[in-house]
Design goal:
With 340 residues, the protein is α/β, with parallel strands linked by helices. The two termini are 18 Å apart. Helices cover 34% and strands 24% of the residues. The chain has eleven helices and 14 strands. The protein is globular. A hairpin with a 3-residue loop joins strand 13 and strand 14. Helix 1 runs parallel beside helix 6 and helix 8 runs parallel beside helix 9.
């Protein structure tokens, strides 16, 4: 059976860099005895990138797709599927994948949206892997466009209008930690064009997933009911526990142990959870790809952004081994092993 490899990856961040404290000040959070630099000091997030709050998610996804396609060596008509994996969509129907395909001129046979909160892009990777391994798709384009600042400013406005008050601060602070970004990845088979796997053991080796749906109230967004909550401690404790328990099984899927890992690529919500992963999994900081300081929580885009940063830094050398750790509200955890 074929393996699936990353053929190209790209990211595009929103143009305006803002500090979390400036957003808290605009929201008037300091009126409720919360210091303006609470997020910077407690999560390590120093900068967020925000764009036009009225921008459609596809407007972030398309520039990233265009960058990724420039580094794709195949023909565009070899892309048989497009999965849009963002948390927000351009509209209720049709799927944002159709809108994107029309705007960039791709005629893939399968175009659909996959939504699974911050875990959405990894869900897309796993689905693409199955299509490619079974020969149902030659190449798959995954993309996301996150206009998270729209929700941020909505929550900020609710505090300014006194619709939310002191008792709501703790469960709404998560809204001030997210950034706007577009990301894209093209996946293809590890073969030489004959249908046989190449000798080099590259690509995704295995995946391991689990979930605990009883924890869904810990983090949710329901704009129809104007409801939002992120119980950070609750969801973090449950997620860390699942990640630590799953990792030995994930590694054994390829006969690896933790010392074989060159880089740990993880979805990130802030410093505390990331440092707990490293400590409990015995991963040294030099193997950790960290994005939360400069970009905050990038929701569904964390995986492709981390891979793009590694490539940009020249760290994706042949044979590099990566442990992927993707999490999302629900809660869900998926881990994957990848060899460059």
């Amino acid at each position: 059976m074929l393996n699936t490899k990353i053929e190209s990856v790209a990211r595009v961040h929103a143009p305006t860099a803002v500090s979390p404290s400036s957003i808290l000040e605009e929201a008037g959070i300091h009126n409720y005895d919360y210091p303006l630099r609470w997020i910077e000091e407690n999560t390590g997030i120093q900068t967020l990138h925000h764009g036009n709050i009225d921008a459609k998610p596809s407007s972030y996804a398309i520039p990233a797709i265009e960058k990724a396609l420039k580094n794709f060596s195949g023909e565009l008509d070899e892309i048989d599927a497009i999965f849009y994996c963002g948390m927000n969509r351009d509209m209720q129907e049709p799927s944002t994948a159709h809108i994107i395909a029309d705007k960039i001129g791709l005629s893939a046979k399968l175009k659909l949206d996959m939504s699974d909160a911050c875990h959405g892009f990894t869900a897309g990777i796993m689905m693409a892997d199955l299509l490619i391994k079974t020969g149902q798709a030659r190449h798959v384009l995954l993309c996301t466009g996150e206009n998270a600042s729209r929700g941020t400013m909505h929550i900020a406005d609710r505090f300014k209008r006194k619709e939310l008050g002191k008792d709501d601060v703790k469960t709404n602070l998560g809204a001030f930690t997210v950034g706007d970004v577009g990301a894209a990845m093209v996946l293809g088979p590890t073969d030489d064009g004959t249908g046989f796997q190449t000798i080099d053991p590259v690509g995704f080796k295995s995946f391991n997933s689990n979930n605990n749906s009883k924890v869904w109230p810990a983090c949710f967004v329901d704009w129809e009911l104007n409801a939002f909550a992120m119980h950070s401690v609750w969801i973090s404790l449950e997620t860390i526990k699942m990640v630590v328990n799953m990792t030995p099984t994930t590694l054994s899927g390829a006969g690896w142990d933790i010392d074989d890992i060159d880089y740990f690529v993880s979805h990130q919500v802030g410093r505390s959870v990331q440092e707990h992963y490293l400590k409990k999994l015995n991963i040294t900081k030099d193997k950790s790809v960290e994005i939360y300081q400069d970009y905050g929580n990038l929701t569904s885009a964390s995986m492709p952004v981390c891979f793009d940063l590694l490539g940009e830094a020249g760290k994706l050398e042949k044979g590099t081994k990566i442990l992927m750790n993707s999490t999302g509200s629900g809660i869900v955890v998926s881990q994957g092993l990848y060899v460059v």
